[in-house]
Write a structure and sequence with these properties.
The structure is a homotetramer. The first copy, chain A, has about 210 residues and is mainly α. The first copy, chain A, has one domain (about 5-205). In chain A, about 75% of the residues lie in helices and about 0% in strands. The first copy, chain A, contains eight helices and no strands. The first copy, chain A, has helices at about 5-10, 15-35, 45-55, 55-80, 90-115, 120-145, 155-175, 185-205. Residues about 200-210 of chain A have low confidence and may be disordered. The interface of A and C includes residues 22, 25 and 26 of A.
Chain lengths: ~210, ~210, ~210, ~210
């Protein structure tokens, strides 16, 4: 049985959502601001500027991928929280752990952009995604066990949230494993998996459940 | 028909609004912080400091313009969302795309401030504005088709939102095209169009509809 | 008479408040982060580190003052908005102008910290405070004229909000004028005026109205 | 008796909470972004990259500790505010002081990461935690004296909030004092105290009150 202070602490789901939105907003904006642009010293004509920008291509893919990562986990956390009736300090701390992993995304992105051909960089990026997924999964399991989920949430919704995380993580792990072939292949597969989750309804018309 | 998970995902308009306000707030503040100021090594008297600051003039115009850009699209997104009754994951992802374009504004601004006489820089800045407008337009079209718009929204309001985006984008495109004459002319026209939208009511007294 | 689009645009006070809180939060946090700290190369013993930190004293005063500035204007804007019944696009744009001045505070602070003995730097800092006050005053006048103020707001509250801005701006202007004697005197007076507003209730006990 | 303006100023608890969430979100995200990563010039093979990352270990502990610090005080402030019925300008300013201390956390963290073997750096970090605790304590005392606490808050909850701050600060002070033995010992004890507060329910099962 938790102590009195722990029973009253950190229960506001509204403040947890507001902190989360703030952290996602800062991470998403800083992510992109971190990109290196050509400087006046590096480009002296329209043509040089264009080709300097074009050479940033790989960077763009990395940063675009990270925005997708953050968008997917923002949507995922929001979906969970919308089915939770009340907060507890345990839930708040699991989500603080999740948010810590969110703040690491710009960092692992910067590492990947700097070392895009290194398996270590891909591995760390994947670890970041893995921790994000694991914390969300833990948060949902905890909410289920502690009876925090709204009464009107059908059981199939509960299962669908778990299944979604597990399948996505399997696909990410498969993608990351491809870095032993080529790191580029790895990144391409992860981006494709993410695009599938982002635009799914377009492709998914006709399917009935997932 | 979307899958079960996709039907329950990302539906909170409040969290979408909160994430948007956060991203706009970070982008607006970082935009300005990105400006270069003279350092103590560059100015050794009151006069030198004043002239060093005055020479930042072009930078100021660029950053002021981008604050206007962000303000206009913040107001535009807010207007749309205030007429939408419920969210869907599709709508959330269209707006995440819009927000990605928002995070690019400080970047294209920095590029323009660095290369203010280059057509490529003006072109990229204009592309950024175009994508912002296109995503907002898509979001509104999607909301209309998917029946998400509030029942009490008069049809003329719906049309007025579309028309506003189309006319503004035409004016921006015309302004951007002037970069083939002079990039400065281009920037001046875009700023004037934006000021018109920002202070419109002052100028617009007497007109009845738009 | 405003156009249809302008009648429906930017009316949400909640989103204006959320954007404002976001911008104030980013400005307040980045302000402080901008401070220079000694690096390992500059301090090689406990004593050297202490004296390196002590030599940052003037910087601390500048940044502390700016946090007070932001806190005062945040409280001031909040007080106004809490007495406004509904938003309009005009009000939104006046407050966007106010927020633009907020985003300039970290910039004018950095300038002042770099050029603390220059009247030009004090002058620009004061201009920033002046614009903040002027925009808030304009916002309140506009709300009064356009009939946006809540019906239950007593007339003396309306006057008190105007009077507060005018008196504060007079004191700031007097403080700034002292820069022609010594810039330090100027900064000291502005900080004292701000501290008076921040802790006023402590000193103000016994007075009845202001 | 406060002046009229001071009676109407800064009373919105919602805006105080929103500003707080924003500042915590920015501080938490920037904290981590401040970490130095190896650059392409520093690592030329998978092995070198791995060992360059491993050598960042001490940095990681510092930044992880600061995220815990921020998480603990965010949860603490939230707990207090959730038991307060109405805001006053005094309460707003006490919390602005608390938030100023929050914005200093990334700064004292950066100092500690740079000077991890210096007692001065540990001392300043501890001072930061002390001020955070002192402001929260002051805020709660003020709310109690001014009758702002919700009527349905049991007296034991009030006491539990005070006791929690006092005990935690005693433990932090004891940890900080160990810097006279070894700064690393100091940091280890502070991290352990924080982990205890973060995961307390896990360890605390069976205890009845605290």
């Amino acid at each position: 049985m938790p102590t009195l202070y722990n029973r009253i602490q950190g229960r506001s789901l509204e403040r947890l959502a507001a902190l989360s939105d703030g952290i996602f907003a800062v991470a998403m904006t800083l992510l992109v601001l971190d990109m290196h642009l050509p400087t006046a010293a590096q480009a002296h004509s329209e043509g040089e500027l264009l080709s300097a920008l074009a050479s940033l291509g790989p960077q763009w893919i990395t940063y675009g991928m990270s925005f997708l990562t953050l968008g997917i986990f923002w949507a995922g956390q929001q979906t969970q929280l919308s089915h939770i009736a009340e907060g507890t300090r345990d839930l708040a701390w699991i989500h603080l752990g999740f948010l810590f992993a969110v703040t690491l995304v710009p960092l692992s992105t910067r590492l990947l952009a700097e070392f895009i051909t290194y398996r270590v960089a891909v591995g760390i990026y994947w670890l970041n995604i893995l921790v994000l997924g694991a914390m969300l999964y833990w948060g949902w399991m905890h909410a289920a066990r502690a009876g925090l989920i709204k009464d009107d949430t059908p059981r199939e919704v509960q299962l669908s949230i778990c299944r979604r995380i597990l399948i996505a993580q399997l696909l990410y792990a498969a993608g990351a494993a491809l870095c032993f072939v080529r790191t580029w292949l790895s990144i391409a597969v992860i981006v494709l998996v993410q695009l599938n989750y982002a635009v799914a309804p377009r492709l998914g018309r006709g399917r009935k459940s997932a």
